[in-house]
């Protein structure tokens, strides 16, 4: 029977003898802990941090010997290795007798182990070593025993002389070529080959059996050969034997080869029985003969074949079952088929088992007086017998002791003492084998120690379970006591418990538990202190809620928590249905932003519970929310029309899925079957809790219904429409509304009404009955029929009163009786003009007009009122001519029909006017009254058109202005008022009596203050409206600050912020290439107000030093490195290249052509009107320049040229710098004056420069246009020069 070997639990690997240093004991202690899947009662475990100087260990077999079969002395090798402290001694037994390998001169033993092998010459036969061996490893603490192994000796297999085999068969017959290799306890591997050492090809017709024979289901002529050779390979003997070749001759039959039914070749018959062991593999053969070649199928008669442990080989001729289990016992069947029939073979498989462990005892350490329980349970078929040994000697041979009992494989040892230290063997045995396991009991005494450090600080949060560690170790187990502030009543608190390992546990800890605790070991001077600090627990203040989200939308959860500041910053971990979420950068599904979780593009699979965990180093808090997918509802179904009546019907339906948002309302819609072009219309709304409604219907209408569901998300698609439902006809319920007269032409009466909806016709042949009669003179009604409005009656006179009414009718009858309304025939224009029209001048801009009412009979219609027509023919100061006969403005004022006077305001002072009055009705105006002419008095002038401020020094300011566009009289002069802003200083007044003066210089101003200026025109009627400006004088210039650099390859861009209210000054940039050894170079003079300059001509990849100088003093310096690679070798200048010379020549030629075209265009200018010239000047001034925009600049020279142009505007935007005309000559010398100007909002962008020749204010045209202009404060250095 095979011998089952069992490796001892926890005894893997060879370990050196245990050293005495305590640090080196740590791996050993870890190993001991790893050997304890199930703790025995009273076992102790030495912690890794226990300090010990010496520790012994019982022997443990680390390498077990194995059974072997040897064919020569050189194959002898039995291994046996063990660990222990002190190192164990080894001995062997053979067939139960002591065997000493060292006494055999042909064997040698490995030092420090029990392993022996053949090294010398063996005297005597090999059979002397045949037998069963056991290895023993022993030291002072016990003896460990190895598994029993068997050493089998055999001679090397050899071939016996045999005769050559020749077989001759007819085609179609079955043949077996036998191998019959020499016997060995180690079965050989069989190879069928030809003389060229090529394997014989196997297939479903030619099969090799497990017995090594070659089976032919039927032979063919191609099977004929003389070299069928069986080769037996003995792996353990390292030998291959080739048998005599077999000759097979296949003859051809004279007749047709007959087909044959299948027959079993191996195994024979219809039934066979197999015995196998649990855990092994089983192979079932089904080798058959027949013609044509049969097919093979495998089934299990009493169950299903295991797909994972069964496999088919040799073209289904062999079924292999791996890792046999008890469930594999039963019946299997091989079914063989060909065209001639079928045959089956049944295999009965019985499964038994060698012993195997179900529970193994564990090696442990014990303190004196403890109770030891070693459980040893094994199973097998048949059931094995279990026996115990101590140090290799059966327990039955020991002196019986009342402290030790053995029952059902369990050994119990009470009140252990030091002499109980030993290695115990548990052995299980049945007919299939034996297994053995070694377990030691080590009774040890160790001094007590506290394993935790003194003065440890413990941090917990409120409500947690605080554990103060005071782990002790010793054998016997030490007794631990705890105290707090010298109080002996600590354990009286029900929340405080002393754990068996010595730790102190405080449940539901609070701030009152904070303080110093002392742990002591009884009967020793060992103690440690522990400091407990309790912090506020983490609380979630704003938990995530339940979110109702539509598909495709974004959901945002917020999780705000309050954390004790002593704790580490919290980490927020989000989970969905218990699974952690991670930010997905590729899909952007989950995004974490502070306390927020953002779920993008929410879909159905995103539904679930979302939990936020706020995690600190001491505690965590969690709260959950959810995402519920909501959507608009599905449409209702199963619409049914029931209980039909003349005027109503009941409609019912079944609601569709509301998608987690309840239906609020159902909308019932209908479609008129006779008017489908009107589409579906809403008929009624029903509460979302109802699924039926009674609907009122209109007669003579074909209805088709549908229902729409509405929830908080939106509307569903409409339901499928119901069947068509038609109502019977009836007489009309109503008459047309808004019956009226809309007569527009004289001598006609137009009767019209609101046409009724087809749905209220209530029946066929619908029409309208129209009735009319005069209010005065007619006693009977006239009537006629019409199918649509209007109905026209002619020859009825102008504006005559009629009573009219319209009644609805159809085939079933007429609508209800109705009351008539009054209407009139068509109107005509009035015949007469108002009489006695008069005008009174109230002031320079208002008049009162009066007239007498007209006779209503002359109105020939409804009197709607009067119209006053007012025409203005210019100023009184204008020359009377063609312009005076043409009005420049006209005003039409309507009054009510009862008014007889009206005051008109808003007239222009000092102007010529005419007026007349007409009466009007809906047909139009009558003839005008007699025209009245009048003139308005002189008035106060309007504001001057522009006001510009120029400052040349810090104490002077020059004001430039243009006269008012509306002088409203004869301009006498100007009034200037000014004062300091944000100050209580008095208002200064300057009176200018000459209306031709357009500028004024103020002196002795405060250079540190801003002023507000008010300038008004004056006439004999008084002072006019002011134009307002704010500004300040300029200060002495200073070099720029805050210089920024942008470095390129061959240039550097310099930018700075010009000083506010400071005159421009000139400065220069000096630069030095630090790499070429050259001299300092200097830029052109720069202006501080320009804000930008580009320094060109630098060398790429070079270091430069820059100095900024003002008045021969350096006010800022820095170093830069240009971009690009430095020039390593001198290269030919591109200026000498042919392509560059050609390019420059082309540019020069192009510039010449452009200059010629400009001169030609200017020469063809011709004559043009003053008005066109003024408009051109206005256009030329409207050239905006982007302020503070990098890269858009003009040169200083171009700015100066524009300043010299008469058409250049001089006003500035609010808080911008302006350039004074009077100082342009000294601009390049840095003395240009700039000032800040603030405009009134009502006058922003409404200014123009005065013309070169200012007209006399007395004859100034008041129709001058306003010209909006803006300027900028930037004066850049680099740009094209503008004409």
TrEMBL record:
Q: Which GO terms describe its molecular function?
A: cell-cell adhesion mediator activity
Matches recorded under InterPro entries:
FN3_dom, Ig-like_dom, Ig_I-set, Ig_sub, Ig_sub2, Immunoglobulin_dom, Neurofascin/L1/NrCAM_C
Domain named Fibronectin type-III is located at 635-730, 735-828, 833-939, 943-1037, 1039-1125
Task: List all Basic and acidic residues biased stretches.
Answer: 1170-1205
Q: Where in the cell is it found?
A: Cell membrane; Cell projection, Growth cone
Does the entry feature the keyword Cell membrane, yes or no?
A: yes
The record lists the membrane-crossing segments as: 1138-1160
The UniProt entry, under CDD domains, shows: FN3
Annotated SMART domains: FN3 (SM00060), IG (SM00409), IGc2 (SM00408)
What are the BP-aspect GO terms? axon guidance; brain development
**What is its membrane topology?**
Single-pass type I membrane protein
Question: Cellular component terms, GO, for this chain's entry?
Answer: growth cone; plasma membrane
Segment forming the signal sequence: 1-42
Pfam families per the UniProt record, alphabetical: Bravo_FIGEY, fn3, I-set, ig, Ig_3
The Low complexity compositionally biased stretches are 1263-1283
Location of the region described as Disordered in the Swiss-Prot/TrEMBL record:
716-745, 877-896, 921-943, 1170-1208, 1243-1283
Q: Which UniProt keywords apply?
A: Cell adhesion, Cell membrane, Cell projection, Disulfide bond, Glycoprotein, Immunoglobulin domain, Membrane, Repeat, Signal, Transmembrane, Transmembrane helix
Q: Locate the Ig-like domain: which residues?
A: 59-153, 157-247, 262-350, 355-442, 448-535, 537-628
* Keyword Signal on entry: yes
UniProt lists compositionally biased (Polar residues) regions at 724-738
Q: What does this protein do?
A: Neural cell adhesion molecule involved in the dynamics of cell adhesion and in the generation of transmembrane signals at tyrosine kinase receptors. During brain development, critical in multiple processes, including neuronal migration, axonal growth and fasciculation, and synaptogenesis. In the mature brain, plays a role in the dynamics of neuronal structure and function, including synaptic plasticity.
User: What family is it from?
Assistant: Belongs to the immunoglobulin superfamily. L1/neurofascin/NgCAM family.
Q: What is this protein called?
A: Neural cell adhesion molecule L1
Q: What is the species of this protein?
A: Oncorhynchus tshawytscha (Chinook salmon)
């Amino acid at each position: 029977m095979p011998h089952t070997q069992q490796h001892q639990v926890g005894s893997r690997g060879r370990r050196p003898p245990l050293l005495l240093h305590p640090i080196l004991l740590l791996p050993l202690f870890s190993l001991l802990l790893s050997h304890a899947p199930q703790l025995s009662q009273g076992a102790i475990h030495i912690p890794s941090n226990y300090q010990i100087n010496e520790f012994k260990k019982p022997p443990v077999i680390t390498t077990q010997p194995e059974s072997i079969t040897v064919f020569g002395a050189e194959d002898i090798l039995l291994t046996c290795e063990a660990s222990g402290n002190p190192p164990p001694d080894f001995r062997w037994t053979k067939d139960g007798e002591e065997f000493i390998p060292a006494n055999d001169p042909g064997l040698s033993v490995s030092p420090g182990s029990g392993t022996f092998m053949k090294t010398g010459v063996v005297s005597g036969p090999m059979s002397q070593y045949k037998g069963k061996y056991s290895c023993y490893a022993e030291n002072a603490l016990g003896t460990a025993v190895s598994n029993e192994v068997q050493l089998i000796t055999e001679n090397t297999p050899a071939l016996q002389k045999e005769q050559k085999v020749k077989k001759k068969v007819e085609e179609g017959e079955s043949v077996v070529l036998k191998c019959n290799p020499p016997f060995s306890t180690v079965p050989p591997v069989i190879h069928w080959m030809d003389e060229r050492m090529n394997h014989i090809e196997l297939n479903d017709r030619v099969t090799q059996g497990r017995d090594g024979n070659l089976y032919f289901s039927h032979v063919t002529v191609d099977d004929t050969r003389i070299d069928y050779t069986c080769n037996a390979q003995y792996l353990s003997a390292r030998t291959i034997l080739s048998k005599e070749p077999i000759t097979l001759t296949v003859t051809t039959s004279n007749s047709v080869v007959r087909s044959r039914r299948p027959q079993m070749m191996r195994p024979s018959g219809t039934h066979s029985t197999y015995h196998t062991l649990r855990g092994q593999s089983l192979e079932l053969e089904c080798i058959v003969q027949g013609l044509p070649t049969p097919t093979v199928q495998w089934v299990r008669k009493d169950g299903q074949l295991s797909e994972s442990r069964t496999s088919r080989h040799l073209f289904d001729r062999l079924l292999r079952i791996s890792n046999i289990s008890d469930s594999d016992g039963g019946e299997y069947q091989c079914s063989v088929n060909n065209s001639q029939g079928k045959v089956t073979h049944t295999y009965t498989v019985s499964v038994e088992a060698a012993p195997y462990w179900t529970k193994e005892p564990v090696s442990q350490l014990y303190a004196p007086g403890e109770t030891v329980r070693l459980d040893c349970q094994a199973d097998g078929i048949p059931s094995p017998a279990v026996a115990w040994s101590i140090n290799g000697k059966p327990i039955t041979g020991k002196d019986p002791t009342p402290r030790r009992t053995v029952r059902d494989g369990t050994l119990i040892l009470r009140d252990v003492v030091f002499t109980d230290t030993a290695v115990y063997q548990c052995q299980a045995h049945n007919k299939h084998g034996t297994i053995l396991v070694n377990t030691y009991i080590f009774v040890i005494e160790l001094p007590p120690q506290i394993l935790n450090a003194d003065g440890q600080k413990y941090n917990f949060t409120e409500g947690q379970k605080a554990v103060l560690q005071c782990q002790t170790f010793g054998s016997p187990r030490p007794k631990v006591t705890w105290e707090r502030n010298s109080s002996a009543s600590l354990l009286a608190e029900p929340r405080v418990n002393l754990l068996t390992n010595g730790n102190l546990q405080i449940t539901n800890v609070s701030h009152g538990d904070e303080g110093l605790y002392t742990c002591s070991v009884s009967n020793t001077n060992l103690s440690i202190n522990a400091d407990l600090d309790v912090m506020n627990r983490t609380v979630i203040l704003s938990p995530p809620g339940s979110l109702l989200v539509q598909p495709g939308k974004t959901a945002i959860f917020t999780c705000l928590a309050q954390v004790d500041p002593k704790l580490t910053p919290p980490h927020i971990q989000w989970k969905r249905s218990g699974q952690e979420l991670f930010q997905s950068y590729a899909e952007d599904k989950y995004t974490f932003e502070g306390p927020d979780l953002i779920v993008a593009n929410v879909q159905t699979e995103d539904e679930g519970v979302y939990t936020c965990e706020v995690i600190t180093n001491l505690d965590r808090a969690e709260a959950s929310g959810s995402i519920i997918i909501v959507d608009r509802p599905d449409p209702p179904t199963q619409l049914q029309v029931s209980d039909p009546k003349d005027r109503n019907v009941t409609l019912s339906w079944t609601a569709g899925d509301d998608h987690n948002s309840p239906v609020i309302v159902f909308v019932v819609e209908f479609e008129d079957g006779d008017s489908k072009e009107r589409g579906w219309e809403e008929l009624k709304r029903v509460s979302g809790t109802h699924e039926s409604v009674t609907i009122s219907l209109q007669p003579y209408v074909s209805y088709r219904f549908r229902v729409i569901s509405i929830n908080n998300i939106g509307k569903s698609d409409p339901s499928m429409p119901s069947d068509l439902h038609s109502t019977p006809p009836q007489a009309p319920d109503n008459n047309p509304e808004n019956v009226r007269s809309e007569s527009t032409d004289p001598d006609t009466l137009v009767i019209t009404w609101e046409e009724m909806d087809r749905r209220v016709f209530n029946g066929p042949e619908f029409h309208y009955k129209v009735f009319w009669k005069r209010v005065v003179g007619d006693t009977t009604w006239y009537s006629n029929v019409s199918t649509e409005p209007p109905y026209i009656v002619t020859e009825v006179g102008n504006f005559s009163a009629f009573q009219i009414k319209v009644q609805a009718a159809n085939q079933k009858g007429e609508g209800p009786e109705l009351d008539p309304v009054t209407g009139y025939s068509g109107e005509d224009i009035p015949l007469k003009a108002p009489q006695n029209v008069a005008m009174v001048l109230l002031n320079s801009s208002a008049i009162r007009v009066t007239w007498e009412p007209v006779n209503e009979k002359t109105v020939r219609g409804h009197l709607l009122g009067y119209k006053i027509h007012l025409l203005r023919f210019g100023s009184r100061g204008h020359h009377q001519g063609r312009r005076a006969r043409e009005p420049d403005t006209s005003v039409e004022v309507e009054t009510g029909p009862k008014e007889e006077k009206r005051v008109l305001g808003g007239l222009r002072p000092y102007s010529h006017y005419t007026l007349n009055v007409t009466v009007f009705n809906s047909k139009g105006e009558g003839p005008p009254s007699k025209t009245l002419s009048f003139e308005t008095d002189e008035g106060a002038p309007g504001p001057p058109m522009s006001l510009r401020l120029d400052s040349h020094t810090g104490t002077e300011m020059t004001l430039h202005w243009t006269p008012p566009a509306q002088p409203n009289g004869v301009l006498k002069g100007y009034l200037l008022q000014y004062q300091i802003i944000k100050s209580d200083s008095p208002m200064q007044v300057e009176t200018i009596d000459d209306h031709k003066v357009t500028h004024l210089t103020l002196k002795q101003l405060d250079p540190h203050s801003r002023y507000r200026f008010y300038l008004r025109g004056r006439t004999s009627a008084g002072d006019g409206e002011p134009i307002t400006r704010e500004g300040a004088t300029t200060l002495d210039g200073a070099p720029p600050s805050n210089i920024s650099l942008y470095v390129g390859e061959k240039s550097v861009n310099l930018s700075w912020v010009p000083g506010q209210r400071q005159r421009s000054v000139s400065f220069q940039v000096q630069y030095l290439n630090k790499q070429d050894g050259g001299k300092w170079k200097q830029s052109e003079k720069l202006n501080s107000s320009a804000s930008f300059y580009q320094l060109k001509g630098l060398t790429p990849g070079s270091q430069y030093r820059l100095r900024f100088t003002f008045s021969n003093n350096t006010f800022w310096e820095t170093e830069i490195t240009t971009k690009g690679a430095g020039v390593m070798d001198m290269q030919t200048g591109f200026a000498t290249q042919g392509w560059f010379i050609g390019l420059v020549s082309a540019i020069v030629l192009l510039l010449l052509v452009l200059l010629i075209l400009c001169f030609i265009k200017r020469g063809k200018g011709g004559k043009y009107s003053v008005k066109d010239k003024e408009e051109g000047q206005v256009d030329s001034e409207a050239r905006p320049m982007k302020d503070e925009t990098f890269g858009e600049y003009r040169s200083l020279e171009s700015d100066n040229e524009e300043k010299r142009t008469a058409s250049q505007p001089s006003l500035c935007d609010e808080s911008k710098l302006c350039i004074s005309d009077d100082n342009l000559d000294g601009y390049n010398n840095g003395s240009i004056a700039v000032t800040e100007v603030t405009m009134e909002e009502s006058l922003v962008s409404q200014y123009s420069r005065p013309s070169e020749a200012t007209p006399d204010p007395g004859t100034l045209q008041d129709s001058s246009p306003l010209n909006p202009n803006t300027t900028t404060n930037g004066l850049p250095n680099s740009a094209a020069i503008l004409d």
